[in-house]
Design a protein that fits this description.
single chain, 348 residues, alpha+beta, Endonuclease III, domain 1, Nucleoside Triphosphate Pyrophosphohydrolase, 8-stranded mixed sheet, 8 strands, 44% helix
Length: 348
């Protein structure tokens, strides 16, 4: 029964769930920040980023007032940079449209950039006790196993069924919403895991269809496999007297707004690119070993190419400028670029 489901889950969370995470507070800004950071990212990875972020931007007003460059520098290495750009836009929207106060309902929160239905519900459930369901990856796994639901959860028909089930299982009391919301997240993250679920520890095992039928490995149904597209690029290491040339990427798309190495399609086109885009005359050296970086939807092979300046190193103001090593490593740069700078740039 739904009420029994919620009762067992709330009781389990209060006794065995996680209670020491830095974002387990009633401040909707910090809860919102944590929910965005935790999308596609493990808790252990998020904690130091969350702590550093809240030290620099302790309130939504601080985040809204910060330059995007500074925000992206704090996010660098966490990946999925659209999250940071939307977070910054949403903070500015809160200041502009909600008088600097994070809106207290899921419906209002969904109007903010980067906040979807599940994220909005989590914030509203944790901070305001709103009775509204969440449906992240962990919750989908718990519900598909408990109810024995077949079919890929990302398919719209299956997802709609899971949303309805998640709503039906909510606790009757708003007072239980924080524990219920945290509990179903904790259960998926620590007990009902993707592989080797710890069913003896689960408070829902007695009526879990997957446990009863021994189908834990089959559910949830896996996404049909697709071939991951392959892409390639050449990244130029343009050095001059201990400085390196970085170019700010467009605000949208992969690594939007971050500082990155200039790119070209082939080694042979490097001199032309440097001449036409930066007014620099260069001669390519031997390419370094390729670096493979895997995104969610494609695999990128990067060929690092050092180039030697043969003329003056003056670069016009604009989207490209020279960085010292320490300055470059502190800027908002993509993870593979950081690796290349650490490996191929002198410390002096």
């Amino acid at each position: 029964m739904p009420t029994d489901f919620a009762t067992r889950l709330v009781r389990w969370q209060r006794a065995h769930g996680r209670h020491d995470l830095p974002w387990q507070v009633r401040d909707p800004y910090q809860v919102w920040l944590s929910e965005i950071m935790l999308q596609q990212t493990q808790v252990a990875t998020v904690i130091p980023y969350f702590q550093r972020f809240t030290e620099s931007f302790p309130t939504v007003a601080d985040l809204a007032a910060a330059p995007l460059d500074v925000v992206l520098a704090h996010w660098a290495g966490l990946g999925y940079y659209t999250r940071a750009r939307n977070l910054h836009k949403a903070a500015q929207a809160v200041m502009r449209d909600f008088a600097g106060v994070v809106p207290p309902s899921a419906v209002q929160m969904e109007t903010l950039p980067g906040i979807g239905r599940s994220t909005a519900a989590a914030i509203a459930g944790f901070c305001f006790g709103e009775r509204t369901p969440i449906l992240d990856g962990n919750v989908k796994r718990v519900l598909t196993r408990w109810a024995g639901i077949e079919g890929f959860p990302g398919e719209k028909k299956i997802e709609n069924r899971l949303w309805q089930l998640a709503e039906d299982l909510l606790p009757a009391s708003a007072d239980d919403m924080p524990a219920f919301t945290q509990g179903i997240m904790d259960l998926g993250a620590t007990v009902c895991t993707r592989s080797k679920p710890q069913c003896p520890r689960c408070p829902l095992r007695d009526d879990c269809r997957a446990h009863i039928e021994g189908r834990q490995a089959e559910l949830p149904t896996r996404k049909p496999k697709k071939t991951i597209p392959e892409r390639a690029t050449v990244m130029l290491l343009v050095l001059d007297q201990g400085r390196i040339l970085l170019e700010q990427r467009p605000p949208t798309g992969i690594w939007g707004g971050l500082w990155s190495l200039p790119e070209t399609d082939a080694v042979a086109t490097a001199p032309t690119l440097c001449r036409e885009r930066f007014g620099l005359e260069v001669v390519p050296e031997t390419a370094l070993p390729p670096l493979v970086h895997v995104f969610t939807h494609f695999r990128l092979t990067i060929t690092p190419l050092p180039v030697v300046l043969t003329g003056a190193a003056g670069v016009a103001e604009g989207s490209a400028r020279w960085f010292g090593r320490a300055e470059a490593l502190k800027a908002g740069i993509p993870t593979p670029v950081r690796k290349l700078l650490l490996a191929g740039m002198p410390k002096g």
